[in-house]
From TrEMBL:
An MF annotation (GO) of this entry: mRNA binding
Coiled-coil annotated residue ranges, if any: none
GO CC annotations on file: cytoplasm
Organism of provenance: Lentimicrobium saccharophilum
GO biological process: nucleobase-containing compound metabolic process; translation
Domain S1 motif: 642-711
Name this protein carries in UniProt: Transcriptional accessory protein Tex/SPT6
């Protein structure tokens, strides 16, 4: 395997512009069970300080090459079984670097279902096909007469010639130069044409933008490609993908036509048939797959970027919270949570129509705020959200309180999930949903990891992209965010712990079980007492787990236990304690990093340790920022062009960003309205949950569409 990894490392290094040793060491670490967060944080010397994106690219490309190798071995075995494996063919197969190249080589040897060419061969017409391919100046009909055989259903010279052309068409289709020429043309010039399905123009009106459009497929924006493919899937659009037909056939003719006689005309007919019946559909499928993969990659990248921003949104922190899941007829569900997010109380109020029990609702809320020492109120932003916010703001509390609208996307999914049932078996979905809203305000990351990322509502065409690739990317994102922030060992849920490097659901469950049975962990070393928590899990996970009240201050930090002795040597060299070193900047300034380099810990690790000692265990997320909508605007009907409003970014796509302005319908800031300059990528300008000022440009109440501008608001 080492030789193969060397080979892979060389190839991946060239593709990613890295050093082969960096790639080789990364592959070696991964094969030893190292996770991407662990390598990025604690193995910088081995990887040359590669970041998570580079490490993930190495992992994914290595996986592709392994799969390619599997396919190569299968193909070699298959051709060998047919006794057709020549030294030259074997060399070509072994040197193929892409799946497409491999499949092209295998195509002539691939077991086929019955085709027109195989039927023609069964009729004994292959010798005639060879005569035609020679294109000597002979009479083709005269040559074909020798192959007439009524018993084989070859009743005329034309029957024989038609069969021979079928065989030639298959040869053309399986020719490597032919496939390469046509593939190059498709890649450079293939157009995607979209037309409405006749009779379904009105039913598919939401695809009206794609009626009678044509554009170069590999240059079309990802959202348009995915929309067109969805329209085709739903039966409203008819798509075609190809370059100019005459160009493709001209290229093939240059390869296969050798003369200018009657036999050449037969070959020309076969070449045209090969393109239209075999090559064009094959290349169209390839091009669709390529465009779909490109569009998927872009959409998944947007989704993962949005998810990262949402997961790393600023937490309010540990506060006593009153959380409200608003509603009209069914009332507003209230829950009181303590600073650890534990449910203390729940009940329902009915301050809105049809009940209008405002006085009773005010009394209940005031009593709960007083009884449970509430410090913040979280209000879901769904149905009745703005009305509930206005109701809360009018209550005269006996203490300063912040009330915050919380994006509740996915809360209903959580409330009906197995995770929620396990946490709150005795409560119904409305209580669980309110708890999720409150906890999401306190710590978005800790709560959102319990919800399928696809349900959080920050994706673009998430149901249209490759679901396996999407899941893979989103899982990478969640793992990255969890390990970037770090996890408090004594309060984290099983779901949050399961994303910590080296753990997973099983060990995470064992940690919680051990914690419930034996009480809080007092040191990281105690993790080794947890069932199935071995040395490897400890190596991978320990640095990302924090113990706030640990006796050893390093257990509260991101310093890995394997480096504790380095910190102790630093303290010893200054005649102080580790605690002194953490608390006193002037002591840390005296440390000469190069004096503490060891065989396993180089300067990158030593510098990381010193940076961590300066801010041990500090949350890397931004500080929480209060935000209020305009109180005079509550519904889309209240909006007028020209209004300048506060908003919050809820979703970012390739074509712009959606903004919540407090009217139960997000508005769109098109990419052209984001800044007074050309913006290629909306992520250059905004991020999820960012507070922005926007100007209302246009309102379509009937279609529930709101057009907004950031540059107009700024100007």
């Amino acid at each position: 395997m080492t030789d193969q990894n060397n080979q892979f490392a060389e190839m991946i290094a060239r593709e990613l512009n890295l050093q082969p040793w960096q790639v080789f060491n990364t592959i070696k670490l991964m094969e030893g069970g190292a996770t991407i967060p662990f390598m990025a944080r604690y193995r910088k010397e081995m990887t040359g300080s590669l970041d998570e994106v580079q490490l993930a690219a190495i992992r994914d490309r290595h996986q592709q090459l392994m799969e390619l190798e599997k396919r190569r071995e299968y193909i070699l075995g298959s051709v060998q079984e047919q006794e057709k494996l020549t030294p030259e063919l074997e060399k070509q197969i072994r040197e193929a670097t892409t799946l497409t190249a491999l499949e092209d080589l295998y195509l002539p040897y691939k077991p086929k279902r019955k085709t027109r060419a195989t039927i023609a061969r069964e009729k004994g017409l292959e010798p005639l096909a060879k005569i035609l391919m020679a294109q000597n100046p002979v009479d083709p009909e005269e040559k074909a007469e020798a192959f007439i055989d009524p018993e084989k259903s070859v009743n005329s010279a034309e029957d024989a010639l038609a069969g021979a052309r079928d065989i030639i068409a298959e040869w053309v289709n399986e020719s490597l130069p032919a496939r390469e020429q046509v593939r190059n043309l498709f890649t450079r010039e293939a157009m995607i044409s979209s037309r409405p399905v006749k009779g379904k123009e009105l039913e598919g009106i939401h695809y009206q933008n794609y009626y009678d459009t044509t554009e170069q497929i590999l240059r079309a924006p990802s959202h348009r490609i995915l929309a067109m493919f969805r329209g085709e899937e739903e039966g409203f659009l008819r798509l075609a993908v190809e370059p100019a037909e005459e160009k493709a056939i001209a290229r093939l003719n240059r390869i296969f036509l050798k003369g200018d006689n009657e036999v050449t005309r037969q070959v020309e007919m076969a070449v045209k048939d090969a393109y239209k019946r075999l090559l064009q559909p094959s290349m169209e499928t390839e091009m669709r797959q390529l465009a779909k993969q490109k569009a998927d990659d872009e959409a998944i990248k947007v989704f993962a970027g949005n998810l990262r921003q949402l997961l790393l949104a600023a937490p309010l922190g540990q506060k006593n919270v009153l959380a409200i899941d608003p509603g009209f007829r069914t009332g507003c569900k209230l829950v009181c949570l303590d600073r650890q997010g534990r449910l203390l109380h729940n009940e329902t109020i009915y301050p809105h129509p049809p009940q209008n029990e405002v006085r009773e609702a005010v009394a209940k809320v005031k009593n709960l705020v007083s009884a449970y020492g509430v410090e913040a109120i979280a209000i879901g932003n769904g149905t009745a959200g703005r009305e509930t916010e206005n109701f809360i703001r009018k209550i005269p509390f006996d203490r300063p309180l912040v009330s915050i609208m919380v994006n509740e996307s996915g809360a209903s999914v959580y409330s009906a999930s197995a995770v929620a049932r396990e946490e709150f078996p005795e409560y119904d979905v409305t209580v669980r949903g309110a708890v999720s809203i409150g906890r999401r305000l306190m710590d978005p990351l800790a709560e959102l990891v319990k919800i399928d990322p696809k349900s959080i509502g920050v994706g673009q065409y998430q149901h249209d992209v490759n679901q396996q690739s999407l899941q893979h990317s989103l899982e990478d994102t969640v793992i990255s965010c969890v390990n970037q922030v770090g996890v408090e060992l004594n309060t984290a849920s099983k779901q949050l712990l399961s994303y910590v490097s080296g753990l997973g659901p099983s060990i995470a469950g064992n940690i919680v079980e051990h914690r419930n049975k034996n009480g809080a962990f007092r040191s990281r070393k105690e993790l080794l007492k947890v069932k199935r928590f071995g040395d490897k899990a400890f190596e991978q996970a320990a640095g990302f787990l924090r113990i706030r009240d640990a006796e050893n201050p390093l257990d509260r930090s991101a310093v890995h236990p394997e480096s504790y002795d380095i910190v102790q040597r630093m303290a010893d060299s200054l005649g102080c304690t580790v605690k002194n070193l953490i608390e006193q900047e002037e002591l840390r300034k005296k440390i000469m990093p190069e004096h503490f380099v060891t065989q396993s810990a180089g300067l990158p690790t030593i510098n990381d340790i010193l940076q961590e000692l300066a801010k041990p265990g500090r949350d890397p997320r931004e500080q929480f920022d209060l935000f209020e909508f305009d109180n005079s605007i509550n519904s889309i009907e209240d909006l007028k062009p020209g209004m300048i409003l506060n908003g919050i970014i809820t979703n970012i796509t390739a074509f712009g960003a959606f903004v919540d302005i407090g009217v139960h319908q997000d508005g769109l800031v098109h990419v052209s309205q984001m800044a007074n300059r050309f913006v290629r990528d909306p992520n250059e300008v905004v991020k999820l949950t960012q507070k922005v000022r926007v100007k209302v440009m246009d309102v379509d109440v009937a279609r529930k569409r709101i057009s907004l501008s950031m540059k107009e608001a700024a100007g």
